[in-house]
Amino acid sequence: MQSKGFIKLIAVLLALACVYQLSFTFKTRGVEKKAAAYAAQFPLDQQDEAEQHYLDSVQNLPVYNLGFRKFTYKECKEKELNLGLDLKGGMNVMLEVQVEDVVKALAGDSQNDPAFIEAIGVANEAMKQGSSTDYISDFVKAYSRLSNGRPIAELFVSPDRKDITLESSDADVEKILKKETEAAIGASFNVLRSRIDHFGVTQPNILRLPNSHRILVELPGVKEPQRVRDLLQGTASLEFWTTYDANEIFPALSAADKLLKNELAQTPVVTPEAATEAATEAAAGETPAGGAEGLIAEVGAADSAATAETTVQEGNFDQAQNPLFAVLNPRFAGGASIGAAYKADMAAVDEYLSRPAIRELFPADILFKWGVKGDDKIDGRFYLYAIKVSTPDGKAPLDGSVVTEAIEQYAQRGATAEVSMTMNAEGTQEWARMTGENIGKCIAIVLDGYVYSAPRVNSKIDKGQSQITGDFTIQEAKDLANVLNSGKVPAPAKIIQDTVVGPSLGQESINAGMISFVIAFILVLLYMGLFYKTAGWMSDVALLTNVFLLMGVLVSFGAVLTLPGIAGIVLTMGMAVDANVIIYERIKEELRGGKGLSLAIKDGFSKAYSAIIDGNLTTIITGIVLFIFGNGPVQGFATTLIIGIITSFFCAIFITRLLIEWIVGKWGHISFSRRWSENFLNNTRVDFIAKRKMAYYIAAGLMVLSCVSFFARGLNLGAEFTGGRAYVIRFDKPVSAEEVRHNVEKAFSQFADADASSISSEVKQYGKENQMRIVTQYRYDDTSDEATSEVEQIIYDALKPLYSYDITFEQFRNTQTDANGILTADKIGPSIAKDMTWNAIYSVLFSLIAIGLYITFRFKRWQWASGATAALAFNALLIIGIFSMFYGLLPFNLEVNQAFIAAILTIIGYAINDTVVVFDRIREYLGLYPKRNLKENVNNAINSTLSRTINTSGTTLVTLLAIFFFGGETIRGFIFALIIGVVVGTAATIFLATPIAYDLMTKRAKTDAEK
Questions:
Q1: Where are the alpha helices (H) located in 682-825, listed in sequence order?
Q2: Of 380, 35, 336, the residue nearest 197 (C-alpha)
Q3: Helix (H) or strand (E) segment spanning residue 390
Q4: For 550, phi and psi rounded to 5 degrees?
Q5: Which residues contact 1001 (CB under 8 A, 6 or more apart)?
Q6: 245 CB contacts (<8 Å, ≥6 apart)?
Q7: Which residues lie closer than 8 Å to 718 by C-beta, 6 or more apart?
């Protein structure tokens, strides 16, 4: 092999990079173990809070020293291996901005126009039926038709709008409405992004879905699902407040510190030692952050970050002597900020300042509000601002509804950015009063109770146009502009889908996944070592390297590891040995042909390349389709599958060859088989082509059975495709599915609005005998929290008698406090269900088309692609038929859901490997033996690759069976589909794909001969 040194260098560099990436995961685990040990000294009901307190306190402290760089716990956490919700527990929420509400808000009083109301109804119906591609376009067309051509601009003309006039065309108004809708979605996205930072979860994720009005939010480890729902759907509250200066408040703050010292001396309290030490250590040597901004009209910005004259100059405070200043450091006061605290200490500060005796020391009109996020310049501390209440009703003098536009732009001087803000007439008048009365002071911009910025007023602003300046980057200015625009959002985003996974089920999934992973791994290692002897053990070393590289690459890309992702890794292991099997079988053929060992190894690798590359590329194609059309765990599976294919290719081609050539160079010999496996399926002479008609009849019979079952029984469609709510519920004792079904259906039948379809509930055992999965379509088209609470209350009332103790409704809904009750909850609205259905159909069709095109391109004949595509379609349809025939009969869940579609696509990508290897050998034989007839070459190709086919399928089946039996109930149906697909796909390659291609080529040859 050429360039051995370069390959070795690449392998070493990859290994070092993976060690570097994975080391952060081990380091965070170490810190979290210390946190758990620290929390263990507290009472049981306080341990979770104490553990989080410890982690918050060390968040910005160095915990990992590599010599050339120190990493804080927060930085290590950002680089660790991310676990999906199904492994960690948590909540996945899909929200949608209601375009109808945006249009109504923009129309104002015109929304009462009869034609407007009817046009909105038409657009809503098109959206509900799934026939709408653009809500705004549907609305504009409907209004034009229903109003007999009246200009739509009449509805939206307003004194505060300059972009729409009575002369504006319908097309211009349509563009503006679309622009306003996009702005509303962007503002909602910004509001949601700020809110998820306050849920107390690590590694939250928020994603705006392209070409839609939807936003996906993932919150691993969240403990209060209902609180999350309430906060995410709340209307944004943007406010402008006047403030106190720090030097005005410091005397009261100092008096509060002294009073608190006396109070605590009389009533000792336990303060988490780790947090105190962290705060004290990090405070040492810090300098104040000059982070305040300036608000200017005609004059330049003034620096509001100067430390107040009476601010304490020394930053080290003793917990006993200065209990308040030890957690709220006044050294960072300036402008409207009276100090800064670590996240871990914010609750303590709130508690101290809310004490009646301390509250009396401050002005009666003061409010304390925290900054929205920690400032990296002061080690991640959060500023606390002194807000001044200046209205009789205690509300903010000005709210976000008066902001008509806020845009980011570069300042006229310098390279910094600024924000230009425009207000309407009402806001301009009040803004002039506020700024005129507070020159030299700060005005706080507050969203949802958190201060985003507190710029200083330099002069009165009486024209409604303001520039907010400071040391902004363009991204920071854009974020602030988004905050200011959030006050214009006419309606909050509504949840249309959410999934809750309890922490106990997540831990069970991790345990089941790891057990299946270890067992499958050991079985594959033994299989290869026992069958291929020394060469097999070398492939095992390459396989170990592959898993190591795969995990490292997953971490470096920031990919999320899900339970299907673990299944993808295990499946990748089974498929990874495929390349080694192809290579070893080739080398054995070359040795049987009389070549020397070194030449046989060289030619064996060379002749195997084309089949390996084609097989891997077709699998990657299906992986890409999966990633594009899938979501959540399915994308996790696709990610691990794609990365696994790439790393397994590198290890099989390069690492395995380096090891084999090293052994040959050192000992002069290497074994590729044992005596019993040396001639395994070597001398078969089966006439497969002669048996093709029987195969066609069997395949046709199976298709007929599948079609009959499909039309007679249908499929057990999951909530993803039907809409509805699905729950996995754990009882404290074994229960029967029939008993649970009877109770649930009886409970739903008592409601007047429940029809036959919504009363009927699907109830199945889910894993153990004390776990049941319940799917109901009662009020499935209502995705509101009220409907969800009603459904959960009905189920609770129905199932409460089946518990042996008095479980409360809160315990039933939240497994944080009780191991029993709802383990997982899925809510999927009808619009999401329809989108998922079409995505599933598109993904399968696109995969078949893409692979067909690739086979046509690689083998230069459409007959090859036709045979391969027909066999793949048969495989997919038969799996669907088997799921139709056997659901409800087998002791595990055969639900057609997103994971099932992932299994279909995976099988399409996997089964084509066999087909490509056989086709590749036929193509080779046609070139080597042109005088033999086509039938002989085809039969010989199938027989010569039979050993590879059986071995590859065998290793894959071994891994799948390990996952099936030990991987847990969550993915058992998914793995069952893969097992059926591997068996059927292997047979379809031999008895369908190749014979169909043969028949088509024969027919083409006869046609050419007749011409």
A1: 692-712, 719-722, 737-749, 756-759, 785-799, 809-813
A2: 380
A3: none
A4: -60, -45
A5: 861, 863, 934
A6: 308, 335, 336, 386, 441, 442
A7: 726, 775, 895, 896, 897, 898, 900
Q: pLDDT tens digits, residue range 643-687?
A: 888 898 889 888 999 999 899 988 888 998 888 888 888 778 899
* Separation in Å, CA 409 to CA 301, 420, 855: 16, 7, 52
CB hemisphere CA count around 161 (13 angstroms): 18
- Residues contacting 646, CB < 8 A, separation 6+: 616, 620
- The rounded Cα 651 to chain-centroid distance in angstroms is 29
Q: What percent of the chain has pLDDT over 70?
A: 89
Task: Give, for 728, the enclosing helix (H) or strand (E).
Answer: strand 724-730
Identify any residues that bridge with 827 across adjacent strands, giving them in sequence order. 498, 725
What is the spatial distance between Cα 265 and Cα 714, in angstroms, rounded to a whole number? 73
Does the structure show a pLDDT above 80 at 570? no
- Whole-angstrom distance, CA of residue 638 vs CA of residue 627: 5
8 A C-beta contact, residue 876 and residue 907: yes
Is residue 340 within 8 Å of 383, Cβ to Cβ?
Answer: yes
385 sits in the region (left: phi over 0; alpha: psi -120 to 50; else beta) called: beta
Phi, psi (deg, nearest 5) at residue 43? -55, 155
Cβ contacts of 1004 within 8 Å, gap of 6 or more: 863
The full DSSP string for 740-752 is: HHHHHHHHHHTST
- Dihedral sign from CA coordinates of 454, 457, 462, 468: negative
Per residue in 70-106, pLDDT (tens digit) is 998 888 888 888 777 777 777 888 888 888 888 888 8
Residue 581: name the closest of 621, 626, 527, 655 by CA.
527
Provide the CB-side half-sphere exposure for 342 (13 A, CA). Answer: 26
Q: In which residue are the tokens 């050339």 written?
A: 68
Q: Distance between CA 479 and CA 829 in Å, rounded?
A: 31
Q: In sequence order, what E strands does 49-115 have?
A: 62-65, 70-72, 82-83, 90-96
Retrieve residue 296's tokens: 């200017």
CB of 455 within 8 A of CB of 295? yes
- Is residue 550 a contact partner of residue 565, using CB atoms and an 8 Å limit? no
d(CA 545, CA 840): 35
DSSP, collapsed to helix, strand or coil, labels residue 753 as coil
3-state helix, strand, coil in the chain (%, to 5): 60, 15, 25
Residue 751 has a CB neighbour count (10 Å cut-off) of: 13
CA 551 to chain CA mean position, Å:
18
Q: Could you tell me how far CA 612 lies from the centroid of its own chain?
A: 31
Alpha carbon separation from 466 to 397, 441, 578, 652, 698 (Å, rounded): 17, 16, 66, 63, 78
The tens digit of pLDDT for each residue in 857-894 reads 888 888 989 999 999 999 999 999 999 999 888 888 78
- Report the length, in residues, of the chain: 1011
Give the Cα-Cα-Cα angle 108, 114, 119 (nearest 5 degrees). 85
Q: Is the pLDDT of residue 233 over 50?
A: yes
With 0-12 / 13-18 / 19 or more C-beta atoms within 10 angstroms meaning exposed / middle / buried, residue 800 is middle
Q: Would you say 775 and 762 are in contact if contact means Cβ atoms under 8 Å apart?
A: yes
Can you say how many angstroms the Cα of residue 358 is from the centroid of all Cα atoms in its chain?
45
- Hey, what amino acid is at 63? V
The Cα 943–Cα 925 span in angstroms is 12
Q: Which residues neighbour 602 within 8 Å (Cβ) at sequence distance 6 or greater?
A: 1
Which amino acid is it at 345? D
> Tokens 């070493």 identify what position?
12
